[in-house]
Amino acid sequence: MVAASANRQTLVILTHNLDIGGVQKNVAALANDQINHRKVIIVLLEDDKEIRYPLNPNIEVKLITLLLIDQKDYETGLKLFNYRLQQLNTVFNGISADIALSFEDYSNILLMQAEFTGKKVLSCRVSLNHYQNFPKTHLLPPEFYYDNIAHYYPSADAIICVNRLIASELRQRLDHAGIHVIYTGLDFAGIELYKQQPVEITQPFLLNCSRLHPQKGLPVLLKAFARIAGQVPHDLAIIGDGPQRQELIELANALGISQRLHLLGKLNEPYAYLSVADLFVFPSLNEGFSNAVLEALYCGAGVIASRYTGHEEILKDYGNLVAINDIEALAAKMLHFLTDRPALARLKNQQKRDAGGFDVKNTCAQYQSLLASLYQ
What we know:
Blueprint lengths: L9 E6 L6 H13 L4 E6 L15 E4 L12 H18 L5 E5 L1 H9 L5 E6 L17 H11 L5 E4 L2 H10 L5 E3 L6 H7 L10 E5 L8 H11 L6 E5 L5 H11 L5 E5 L5 H6 L2 E4 L8 H9 L2 E5 L14 E2 L4 H13 L1 H15 L4 H14 L3
Parallel strand pairs: 1-2, 1-4, 2-3, 4-5, 5-6, 6-7, 8-9, 8-11, 9-10, 11-12, 12-13
Helix pairs in contact: 1-13, 3-4, 7-8, 7-11, 10-12
């Protein structure tokens, strides 16, 4: 496939899906901004997921058909990757584009192996330590990611990291001068509109927004909440869905808090809940740059979190951080801020100020500047 020669460039964005999530929200915002500068084609690896975020009607979306797989097959992950690579090459061979921008390491590795001769730009969203914590990510083992990152990333035209930690990790591993940091931003005006929507919970509550996945430390949250449930009037609400849902239901039953737990499922815009929750509790094991935390800071839900890798660039320590997997410390912090209202008010005010500098307009402007520089 050859790069486009028309005056108006074409950008291809490659990602898994546009279902609910931080990456998905960022992709939609960036695509809607980029259509003002160049033609935009979004390629989604999963055709079975709903597109949850509005897109400019001039943006073209191409879907890679889902391959039915046997997850018991040890080679399933690699077979699926190779199938997607073949399908992606078919897409690239049918279009003419100047730049391809991929999101997350799986898609980045796909792009680097694909038959595309335009500029390749990679968006890196998680610490490399993430892969050590799980036997497989997208059905592929840690060594798949480490080996391919080392082999292919040096050939990328640019690498964009969502925080300085990830950039530092990559600079230590790669000989590449084009590693950049662009922070994720928020749509402040949009958030203010959605904050006015009604919420389903009438009693005071604590909140978590995340995928129901082992990475998010949700069993720790339930166990910590169970320790203080008898001392506070609050319920616990979780926005999100994922493979741990049934496990969390069973754990809540075992802990005796099932009547106090609200599993709200997926919500496109959680801002109304974030604006009325007393606390946002986030005991994650590992993050890149958490949209959920940033949104909670801005909406005024006091954030208590674990000291996950990379938290320093978004979360300042106001006595609200605990060690990863420390149930007792998390319970103590929750109880402290729920029973000391002046301390909670100070925390919320400090954190809202911290979030004010993360504007999606700045994020989009920095992406545009970098993409424009590729052909200067």
